From TrEMBL:
Keywords: Chaperone, Mitochondrion, Transit peptide. Assembly factor required for Rieske Fe-S protein RIP1 incorporation into the cytochrome b-c1 (CIII) complex. Functions as a chaperone, binding to this subunit within the mitochondrial matrix and stabilizing it prior to its translocation and insertion into the late CIII dimeric intermediate within the mitochondrial inner membrane. Modulates the mitochondrial matrix zinc pool. It comes from Peltaster fructicola. Its main location: mitochondrion. Belongs to the complex I LYR family. MZM1 subfamily. The keyword Mitochondrion applies. It is found in: Mitochondrion matrix. The lineage of its organism: Eukaryota, Fungi, Dikarya, Ascomycota, Pezizomycotina. InterPro entries: Complex1_LYR_LYRM7, MZM1/LYRM7. GO terms for biological process: mitochondrial respiratory chain complex III assembly. This is Mitochondrial zinc maintenance protein 1, mitochondrial.
Length: 111
């Protein structure tokens, strides 16, 4: 199996884990992943390595750091914490705290 196909399948698995039960978000994430990988068909071999590394980083974030929450009543949410969810002292989040000013800045960064 090619590294591109492998990265795509791993990303789809992470999307299924992160957004299980949230069908609109699940479908949107799958669609975006497919669109991005279709765009990779036109990428040069030098840029392909970087693009696949980016896909693997997104996969890791989705699998370990994205947790869906569902509002069960006013001010109460049930979180979908699963076996892949990273647990710890939030050291990585604290490191980013001083670097990231806003969500816009975070969104603009490449992982």
């Amino acid at each position: 199996m090619s590294s591109g196909t492998s990265a795509y399948r791993q990303l789809l698995r992470a999307i299924n884990i992160a957004f299980r039960g949230d069908f609109p978000t699940l479908n949107a994430a799958r669609s975006q992943a497919r669109q991005k990988f279709v765009e990779l068909r036109e990428v040069t071999p030098e840029n392909l390595k970087e693009a696949l590394a980016h896909a693997q980083a997104v996969t890791k974030i989705l699998r370990e750091n994205v947790v869906q929450g569902k509002n069960v009543r006013e001010d109460t949410y049930k979180l979908n914490i699963h076996e892949h969810t990273e647990r710890g002292d939030n050291a990585t989040a604290k490191k980013m705290e001083s670097r990231v000013v806003s969500f816009k800045d975070l969104k603009a960064q490449r992982f």
